[in-house]
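User: I would dearly like some help making sense of a protein record. This is the protein in question:
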Amino acid sequence: MVMEHSVSNKMLVFCIDIDGTAIQFPGEVRKLYENPDHFILLYTARSESIRSTTIKELFDRDIPYHALAMGKPRADFYIDDKNIYEEELESPKPKKILLFSGGLDSYIAYKLWKPDLLLYCQLNHRYCRQELETISKLNIDHSTLIIDKKVSLYSEERLDAIIPLRNLFLVSIASRYADTIGMGVLSGEVNGDKGEDFRSLSEQLLSVCYSNSYWCEGRKINLVYPINNYTKAELINEYLLNGFSIPELLATRSCYSTSAIPCGQCSACVKRFIAMTINGIQEHYEVDPRISPIIQEFKKRFNTYDDKRKKEIEYVFGW
């Protein structure tokens, strides 16, 4: 093995990390070394004091090279487990971001959780314009609001306003801005993409995607449900106990329709009506939520709800 060679102007210099690459792929290093137009420069972050130990290790592993550097020198190409395109590695984003819709739940979560950033994803769903108009009027720090337009899911929206995989898209987009993502999930939610499995698996998947690599230093993503100890009625009560404004709460919007006034017929309106009624707050709807067709769906699913939610529904509707 040749320990030190001079390099000519015609040779390509390959700077190869020892621990991250050469030891893992010795065969590839040998192939590069066999080309007479290649100059192999091995480098390591190891201390200069263990140079002789490093040389012996390379000899024992049959890893050839022309020069050895303790530190990262200048070269034409870098071949290691870091970024080879001279771009900065993506680093951790130690901030809290809240998925924000301008609805009652996310507004109260904003007040109680105090995130660093708010994220509204403009998915081009049918009531998107109404949400944006509502957000523009809310008492929030608008300098922290991000309106992201990367993804359009208009074609995926069902008649009942459900967008399959919506929350998976939302947390993925949110991960581009912060390491800790807050979702306004309440106690007793029955949807799969608002449960503990979704939370923990999303964390795992995104953390794997952002694991240490040639483009990323490594990021640990945390998905949290900051208001999941409350039902919607309990959440409003907590908001009021903290001295927050009822008019500000009434300025939020929780409706799947495109009408100027909340429809009173969709599930979002009926859930809001129940919670507001329990807290003694009245609102105006196009149609009285007590006669909404969606109530029949509530009756069908009643046994799937937890005890707290059952009691709230029974209290308002007298079942």
